Amino acid sequence: MISKRIRQLKPSPTLSLDFKVKQLQAAGASVVNLGLGEPDFSTPIHVQKAAIAAIKAGFTHYTATAGIFELRKAICKKLLQENRISYHPSEIAVGVGSKQLLYNAFQVLCEKGDEVIVPVPTWSTYIEQIKLSEAKPVFVYLKEPFALTVEDLKKQITPKTKAIILNSPSNPTGAIIDKEQLIKIARLAVKNNIFIISDEIYEKIIFNKGHCSIASLGEKISNLTITINGFSKSHAMTGWRVGYAAGPKKIIEAMISLQTQTTSNTSSISQKAALAALIGSDNPVKYMVSEFKKRRSYLIKEFLKIKEISFIPPQGAFYFFINIKKLLDKRFKNSEEWCQNLLEKEGVSVVPGEAFMYPGYFRISFAAPMKNLKEGIKRIKNFVQKCN
Ligand code: PLP
Fold first, then answer.
1. In this model, does residue 387 exceed pLDDT 80?
2. Which entry of 22, 23, 203, 353 is 20 to 30 Å from 254 by CA?
3. Domains plus CATH for the chain?
4. Pocket of ligand 1 from Cβ distances under 6 Å
5. Phi/psi at 183 (nearest 5 deg)?
6. Which H helix or E strand runs over 75?
């Protein structure tokens, strides 16, 4: 009854886990949810106000599928000022979260048999969306500290390689790709005429290093890059569903064309909110990042006390990817079982490495209040002690 395409689809592991956590919580269990990558802050007040004003002004109808012109213009301004990439509004598509833009990009670029290189550990959505486009994901397995290099990519390039996924800062490792490597990757892509899909959704959440957009490294690479971004993580706007893609006009037009036959525009109200996020004060973003910094420092301090685990401090995003190989034995054969037991016995939800194609690890999100992190750490320590 159900198509093969969908039967083969693996649902989002993090969203499935969250569903389970909510069920446990509804049944009265005390669960500390450190699984989901969703900022716990409220959407900035000026953004909320813009949305309310939009509703009151009757801005509640269809818009251009690509998004309202003012928003696309503001996105261009942002990309020029912050990322040093020059775009025209016709080279911007706004959609229902960056997830939709990624989906549209794969659908538009890929043919059956094409290969798309995905550095692993990876966010599972890329893999499923690549498969939905009938292309084949080709994996580059990174070793700690999970820094992607051009050498890793070179080994996987074939005549069928259509695109490379870059996600810097990365979900789940928090690793950032250095500018030096990006320059080399750009050269490789240009030489082989390979597209880059650069998911920069965590660009604002960085702790030491700066962010570099690969499309800023020259016209040739810009012509091969689709930069993906959105408001979910930077402005605590996960529920508003606004993301955008910037890239060559032909590709963007095709993505919009696809969108005209799927969702049409994202919510008109959310678009006004996103516009306010871009043109309004950046202070709420700065505040959130400063809180993430404090939480990151706290977790580094606490995780260092647990000698059975190891980790690379994240350079960006709001996750730690923790190595628990020393804790796996006959009782817990893999990280999935370990995480399952942590949830059932101690009531802490974290995501097993299997969800990122990288067993032996778990991802813990610090997009959660300090109080929850403290409780979560206490319970994780308890659990690790019991494992010994
Ligand atoms: N890209 C990455 C790497 C993510 O981790 C996520 C969300 O978890 C997204 C994109 C999706 O964000 P959006 O809410 O804009 O669809």
1. no
2. 203
3. 4-42+283-387 (3.90.1150.10), 60-279 (3.40.640.10)
4. 37, 97-99, 123, 167, 171, 199, 201, 230, 232, 238, 243
5. -60, -45
6. helix 69-83
